[in-house]
User: Fold this.
Amino acid sequence: MKEFLSYLKPYRKEGIIAVFCIEAETIFELIIPLVMAAIVDVGVANGDRQYILMKGLQMIILALLSLILGQGAAIYAARFGQGVGAEIRKAEFAKLQEFSFANTDRFRESSLITRLTSDVTTIQTSIATGMRPGFRSPVMMLTAMAASFWINPTLALVFFVAAPILGVLLFLIIKHVRPLYNIMQGSIDLVNRIIQENLTAIRVVKSYVRGDYETKKFQEVNENLQKNAEHAFRLAVLNMPAMQLVLYATILAILWFGGNLVTVGGMKVGELTGFLSYVLQVLNSLMMFSNVFLMITRALASWNRIREVLDEEIDIKEDRAENIQVEKGDIRFEDVSFKYQRDAEEYVLSHVSFHILPGQTIGIIGQTGSAKSTLVQLIPRLYEATEGCVYVDGHPVWEYPLKDLRDSIAMVLQKNTLFSGTVRENLCWGKEDATDEEIENACRIACVDEFIDRLENGYDTELGQGGVNVSGGQKQRLCIARAILKSPKVLILDDSTSAVDTATESRIREGLAKCLPDTTKIIIAQRITSVQHADQILLLDDGRLNACGTHEELLASNQIYQDICYSQQEGGNL
Assistant:
């Protein structure tokens, strides 16, 4: 809870004002039954009209003050709740930015989205709507109970029967409903996952005419959410009839015993009326408090899910970082092994060692699943090597601050990603303050200039989410231009020219060699033609470095490389 309370601090002013308004409103409302009792027992009994009018005016003033304070409580409670929700969401999103790929792999994307949206909304709603009954009901209950004992101590003993019954009922309901809230939030995760997958792959769904299948799949998880929600709320709503049962039973008991007391002269009618008002306030406050407990129970389930993200231990830390920067782009792998999970039985990469000199162009080739992408992701520490060490400019990668290390390395990933916005805004991810001349130069190297004029507004053309309104080849070239704008010490192209023709690929390669001569270039490819001009070619086979050499050396001595080369010749790729 200490961690949760830290998110309240920026909005403690709003919280304090809301609590003050709630408590003041409650006190004024509690005074009203006393005034009403005085009107009946003094004003009406004695026929004193002036006394009745005076006390009536007091009731109106008290009611207006309560109304104003209630409005203030609602406004500031809403600000407090929304503010706390915003702080939690901000902290959770900031934590996600610290995640390595390994951390992200431990959560589903749909689950992270739910934890950032639905779970946070549950907490802020519980705060905004729960503050009033939460702070109002204890004061109302204790004050009304004290007033009831002051009016008639004997009759007030009914509370010692009603309160324990209410407490037991509430405990039993919460005990059974709490785990159901966790299940319900998990069901929301599943619904979000199906929606996300469907929207992301909508073109595949349409092309394979699988709309009915996707609808059925969504219907299953949607019905599962409905079933779990109904089960949870079915138990939660039992709170209201249970409370009302006790409430009406208590009122009947008071009317029975109180009526007898009035008959024998042991109690006045006004006292009984005021006593009933306070009893109703006590029992209503207990009902409100029970509803607050249910809201807190659901909010705690959501907070526990959020805390799993906030408490996730970042496996890539900067505790050993020094104030150094990448100067040359020299890369060395020394007996590096890697597996995604520490307790996994098999390594994805095993005992890989090689050395890349600054400014060299290195090709990496191998069969699908040979861990080529995983290998290069160890250089900017997107993953951490399980064993061995990766060196950049002679320093272990963990000696570099992550920002400096990754700023010096530009990656064009296998899965190209463009963001909503203009072409220019996407390119400026590489360099925020890039000039028009720098953008045009990067686009010329990446052959973007071949199609940019055909776009509706050139560099100011709006791209849809993920770059849906440009082709695969155009998307790849835009991503390459974005990487070039960084002027990196190391440029990694992870199969990033697979969607362009060989002639365009050749022009891109020549442009990189001419304009970025001092940049270390690592090219992952499936086609031999993409890497045959490299200074060295690394051949990976099942996570191991099988061979290293030039195209001619490998073609003359390595059977696997020969097989790849000849198979592509037969397929017309060479």
